[in-house]
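Priority: low. Protein: FtsX-like permease family protein. Input follows.
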Amino acid sequence: MSVLTGWRAALRMARRDAMRSKGRSALVVAMIAVPVLGVTALDVTYRSVTPTAAEQLTASMGSSDALFSDRRSGPIEQLPNAQMYSSVDENAPLDENAPAIDISTTFPKGSRAISLQSAPASVTTKYGITSTDIREIRTSDPLARGMVELVRGAYPHGTNEMAATEPFLKSTGLDVGSTTTVRNSGQKYRITGVVEQPDALKTEALFADPGAVIAPWKAKSEHDKKVTPPNTQPAEWLVKGPEGAGVTWPDVMRANKSGILVTSRQVVLDPPPDSEVPLLGRKDYSAIPSSPTELSTALVTVTALAVLEIVLLAGPAFAVGARRSRRQLGLLGTCGGDRRHVRAVVLGGGLVLGGIGAVTGVVVGLGLTTVFRTTIEEWAGHRFVSLALRPTELLAIAVIGLITGLLAAFAPALVASRQSVLESLTGRRGVRRSSRVLPIVGACVLVIGTGVAVYGGTSGNSTLVSGGSVVAELGLLACIPVIVGFLGRLGRRLPLSPRMALRDAARNRGRTAPAVAAVMAAVAGSVAIATYMSSTGAEAEFDYTPSMTEGTVVLSSASSAEAGAAGRLPQARAAVERNMSVTSPPADYRRIWAGSDCNLYGDAENDCGSIELVKPTGKAHTCPLTGKGAKELAARLSADEHKKLLQSPACLTGTMSTGLFGTNATNIVVADAAMLRTYVKLDDPAAAKALAAGTPVLLNEAFAENGEITLKATHAYSKKDKKNWARHQGKARTTTDKLKVYVAPAKYAATPGINMIMPQRTAERLGLHTEAAGSVYTVAHPPTDAENQAAYAAMAQVGSNVWVESENGPAETDNSMLMILTLFAGMVTLGAAAITTGLAKADAEADLNTLSAVGAPPGVRRKLSGFQCVVVALTGVVLGTLSGLVPAVALRLVDLRKALETMRMDPTESAYTPIVLPWVTIGLLVVGVPLLAGLLATALTRSRLALARRAG
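Result:
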């Protein structure tokens, strides 16, 4: 029999066997198809999300041939891709106020162009007022296609219409047909449609025709000096070149002579030779090196993991299939077939099912990507120009799926071919002892890999961390058969069902160990990434410096010189109290200064003077992390010790934010006990009594010595203060006073924006000037967009130069990746447990018949299936969690080493590098998933057995 004929027969037998065992075949096809589906969807999504050069040009300039921008820097030279340019005369001064040239004179003859210009503006919303970007471009013009697209409604036309993006409408409560007013000019506009920028779907902006917004705004500012003119850059122009000619490189260089930077579609896609680019010939030009991409490594890793998962999960299925077909394989031997033919039959099953799974995975992957295209686009933040299908890559993915099916069937094929014909016909399995060498080698490899990973972490070598982690995981994989065998001894005192499940897992390690390994591999990667993300999130939260106390909002006003802003505070307070979730009465504060006249934005003639808390000298008042010996000290400190030292009062004296409550450099504010309760959160009757008695409350004890502080004030005088100016004109007067203070506990030194609260009468006694500046409120939650817009609308009716600031805390961590990883690991765990349980039922049919025959209750079968699922899932999850901690901890050691090096260069930099376990993720995997797997297996298993015919 020829090789071709033998394989034809083997494939025919494999196809018939697959049709007879439809359940097991569908399981194998699903296991192969699902990873192929994922890789296919990932490939198509990545290729579609990554724009080509032509697509990037369309997003930035629509369907035009070029984008012309006036750089106002004189003649320039640029690269063909317009990513870099330089002035011909480097010594020529940049004049921002130079009049713009007539840019239309630089366009190629016969061109058509539309302008593009934008300006930030204040507009009305459904809730109140917000700031946004208004872009003037004729969105209805064909040149804008691909840059701005209409979603619904109609394009704006004329001077009283606008279009808006969906995110803008969502945050402002407006919709198509709504009216908004540009407060800067007072003009009203009707929103006629919803548009989007395909490359920036999350943009909040308004679009209007050229001249609809900026021109009337400028006109009003010229007639009304109270109106601030729009802050605009020179307009850019989308240019359509002469029909069939486009914008050529000579056209670009001609425009460069007038200082115009040109991004030409034709030039970018077909650049001129380097010899024709003047900028490349300049001695001062240096190209920016491109960073190498790690995409290929990531794709290889993902593909390798997918192959490993398939082999580990599908291998036992082929092994059980070969075992159930051993009588058929034995008959093949009696008819003259040898080991090659037995291997061919089993491998044929891998080829048939692998081919079906690969094709199914690619087709379904393409279908799902098409169905969920809009969702993927919104998640990515930009539209696909088209689904990028690369036949070569899709074929390679399908081939990998096919080869994976063969690899999964390879080991079962070898085992089946080594069985004697007698064993195959009688159904005896024989006695095979587990290898004693493999677990010993695995344990050694596990120890070596863990050691290499930890050494890589301490030495800062990420490559050693990755390599050591992989080696450690391989070592643990080799130990799994012994671990599974040990499980059988744990069930001696357990009830019947769990005891049988443990012993069945131990006896049939060939199907249990690969499933446990598959779960371990999936959970290890998920736990490693989740642990690293949780740790870096905790580090970012620690490093975050709040600008004000969390849970508060601060209402502030400009100085009295700013058109009486302080006098508008009562109405502003009412606006805040009416529109925000305030939970306390206002804690009013006053700004303090030493000059006779203070203008926050004034010049030297309106100097606010200066107030300084003089820090005492001596070791107790000096931060150890500054000055001599700081680097040596930082080198000896642990991360926790350094963290505590950074938060000490002496080290906080130079890190407090300024400008929140006043203009003085040391953050002194005039207020009463309400400020202590509302903002400082210091509920101490002694502190409130001290303020009432005229004693300042010092929050940072590092400024005090023997309960006293030294206050240095430099009194400056304005020419407007004729009385004082006549007596003190010239050099400012400086006074120094010692004040008895109430010193707050050390923890209050970290209060943002305040070092000391001074009573009003004490400021007056010292000859300092104060005025009402604002109020502080506690709020139930950070202000929402609607609340902010409503509050600003109410305050706008009061007047300008009054504003509200809030503390939102550190940026919220995006937990979507952790959720995806947990779901992925959970699905693999459920799948592996279900597969193993299904194989166990198929493999142990005779044992279950015997169990039923001796009188076991029907519920035992359900319980047995449930516990079999729990054994596989729980064992794999626990091992995977332990395995995943190795790379996570090692990578954090790498980060710690880098942080310590930075800290030794600058001792005030934090080296806090925590390792935070993702307990929610671990809890769901260790407890939730095995429990769910067991419950599902129990619920879906039939209690009663069907009558089976006697074999033979």
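Confidence is low (pLDDT under 50) at residues 290-299, 600-606. Residues 89 and 149 are 41 Å apart (CA to CA).
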